[in-house]
Task: inverse folding
């Protein structure tokens, strides 16, 4: 055996465990979901068998008003929560980038929400927005019980409640990514800008903002993809209600699959989500990879 | 154009005092160099002048007026940084315009100023490039240009040449001198490089441990260093500093180290065994005797360094190492015995860390 082929064999041997994990837990389920989506399968009706129906599930999905509504809710959720998260994350990053006494504690405190499991956090927020004993009502109205708002029973408030919970939980993650961007800006640039006559706002607008753009985009990318997959918040806090007001696409997919037992149709929803995210990721990576990094420091 | 005065500047970071008590006067249009080893406080002093750091005590005055409460942006000073500090996301043109744009100068003024600076520094082909597309020397020019377009009262330089290679540094030194002549703006220049200081500075300020040790022209500092530190810091190779004691014998005062005893030409002698330092510049040592009154020291050659034009010979004498500078061809080989001659009027004597002039009472 030549040395080269020996090296390549060793290389493959060392890669196999990782490939096996990815294959078993990512590739195979995705492929299997796709195969499922090409069949008509009702868990409750084993008698009809599992006929192959081509892309019928997908044409059905296109015409399904509930699915369309769910996509709409999801996009609304992604848009609102990501925007707020990046803005809040930026503020957090700017604050903890400054040197002040107790900064270490503040940094740790800010990361706590991110470290809490989502289901636990969701449960907490469900309590907070409870119409009778929730903290939100208590803080806003005190003992004026007659004014208490049933937050999670109102379509608008319920939607805003899950947005609030998501922002609370993940803004610090966005902040952390942006902080990393802030920390690589040399102090000398700010010194130069101060002598050049830039006010604090001008320094932020003309130095900080352009230089953290890559970090902002990465935060945006991560948060968009993550927000699009929102499930546990909705599952715990609202179960998609009231009505379909907070029914996000992942939750609709879950219901179709596990409550209604429509394995084929549910799988097609999953694949639709998968394709949307793939498209989003490619778009972001393209944007970040080409035009926007062109003018950044090497 | 401005006169700069520093009144008793002190600076403390926590419990560390980095500037002890600095007073200095820089006349209008002067080129002054703050020279010292790293950590001596020179950069901190520059940042205090710029307003980027605030002094613990003391006052900075421009044309006689204190500016301690004036923000950096309103001090009308421009600074060139060691790492250039060019805005990486802006083109050279935008970098040059930045200060003027921030101050909302009219576009025509900005155009004219940029053109002047670009012509002066010959950086026309670089205008539309980003800093990362420039070489070190080009970045240095742009950084200088960014200061020039502002037409400031005061130019501050923080080790601006230390990131350039030796050849480019030489070129930039000459350009800086020309620039100063042309603009006539007061310049304060910080460096740890004695060659930069000697060639650039009309006035050199030597600093160490947060103190000013000596202020003077390069000639003065070279000929009459105030302290052993200044003596050892200026000159290459550094001045030989022989450590010894003062002894008295029948009204005559001697410097004593090992077997070496040198009569000191001073009026009244300090108490016997006062420690003293005798300084001898390597270039003042001769291998042959001359007419002038001189001292002779014998020793052995330890090693030689031949630089082509110069040759440094290290001699072991009286348990001390003495380096001397001579022309190649005159040297001896390592291990050979040697006698060196130093004119008496070229000896530097320091007692209690202070220079003692000939016939001066210490």
Result:
């Amino acid at each position: 055996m030549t040395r080269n082929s020996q090296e390549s064999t060793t290389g493959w041997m060392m890669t196999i465990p990782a490939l096996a994990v990815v294959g078993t837990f990512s590739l195979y389920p995705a492929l299997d979901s796709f195969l499922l989506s090409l069949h008509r399968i009702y868990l409750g009706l084993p008698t009809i068998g599992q006929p192959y129906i081509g892309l019928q599930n997908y044409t059905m999905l296109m015409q399904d008003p509930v699915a369309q509504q769910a996509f709409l809710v999801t996009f609304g959720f992604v848009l609102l929560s990501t925007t707020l998260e990046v803005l809040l994350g930026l503020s957090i990053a700017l604050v903890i980038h400054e040197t002040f006494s107790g900064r270490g504690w503040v940094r740790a405190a800010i990361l706590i929400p991110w470290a809490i499991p989502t289901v636990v956090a969701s449960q907490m927020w469900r309590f907070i927005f409870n119409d009778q004993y929730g903290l939100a009502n208590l803080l806003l109205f005190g003992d004026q019980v007659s004014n208490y708002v049933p937050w999670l029973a109102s379509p608008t408030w319920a939607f805003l409640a899950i947005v609030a919970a998501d922002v609370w939980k993940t803004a610090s993650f966005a902040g952390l990514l942006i902080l990393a961007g802030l920390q690589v800006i040399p102090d000398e640039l700010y010194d130069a800008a101060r002598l050049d006559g830039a006010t604090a706002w001008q320094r932020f607008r003309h130095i900080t903002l352009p230089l953290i753009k890559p970090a902002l985009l990465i935060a945006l990318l991560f948060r968009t993809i993550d927000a699009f997959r929102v499930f546990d918040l909705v599952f715990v806090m609202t179960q998609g209600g009231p009505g379909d007001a907070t029914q996000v696409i992942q939750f609709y997919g879950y219901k179709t699959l596990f409550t209604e037992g429509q394995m084929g149709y549910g799988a097609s929803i999953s694949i639709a989500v998968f394709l949307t995210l793939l498209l989003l990721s490619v778009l972001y990576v393209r944007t970040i990879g080409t035009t926007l990094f062109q003018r950044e420091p090497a | 154009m401005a006169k700069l005065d520093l009144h008793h500047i002190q600076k403390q970071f926590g419990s560390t005092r980095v500037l002890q008590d600095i007073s200095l006067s820089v006349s209008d249009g002067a080129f002054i160099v703050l020279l010292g080893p790293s950590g001596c406080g020179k950069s901190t002093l520059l940042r205090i002048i710029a307003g980027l750091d605030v002094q613990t005590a003391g006052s900075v005055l421009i044309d006689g007026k204190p500016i301690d409460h004036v923000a950096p942006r309103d001090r009308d000073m421009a600074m060139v940084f060691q790492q250039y500090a060019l805005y990486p996301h802006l083109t050279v043109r935008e970098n040059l315009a930045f200060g003027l744009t921030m101050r909302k100068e009219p576009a025509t003024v900005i155009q004219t100023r940029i053109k002047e600076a670009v012509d002066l520094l010959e950086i026309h082909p670089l205008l539309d490039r980003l800093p990362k597309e420039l070489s070190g020397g080009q970045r240095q020019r742009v950084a200088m240009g960014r200061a020039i377009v502002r037409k400031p009262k005061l130019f501050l330089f923080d080790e601006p040449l230390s990131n350039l290679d030796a050849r480019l540094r030489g070129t930039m030194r000459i350009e800086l001198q020309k620039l100063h002549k042309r603009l006539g703006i007061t310049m304060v220049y910080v460096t740890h490089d004695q060659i930069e200081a000697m060639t650039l500075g009309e006035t050199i300020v030597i600093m160490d441990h947060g103190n000013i040790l000596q202020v003077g022209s390069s000639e003065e500092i070279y000929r009459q260093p105030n302290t052993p530190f200044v003596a050892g810091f200026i000159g290459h190779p550094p001045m030989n500093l022989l450590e010894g004691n003062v002894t008295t014998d029948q009204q005559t005062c001697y410097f004593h180290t090992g077997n070496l005893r040198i009569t000191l030409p001073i009026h009244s002698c300090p108490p016997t065994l006062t420690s003293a330092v005798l300084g001898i510049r390597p270039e003042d040592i001769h291998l042959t005797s001359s007419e002038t009154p001189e001292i002779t020291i014998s020793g052995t050659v330890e090693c030689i360094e031949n630089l082509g034009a110069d040759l440094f010979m290290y001699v072991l004498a009286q348990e001390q190492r003495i380096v001397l500078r001579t022309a190649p061809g005159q040297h001896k080989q390592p291990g050979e015995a040697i006698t060196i001659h130093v004119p008496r009027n070229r000896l530097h004597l320091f007692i209690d860390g202070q220079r003692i002039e000939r016939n001066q009472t210490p």
In short: Chain B has a mean pLDDT of 88. Chain B is about 25% helix and 35% strand. Residues 4-231 of chain B form a domain with the Rossmann fold fold (CATH 3.40.50.300).
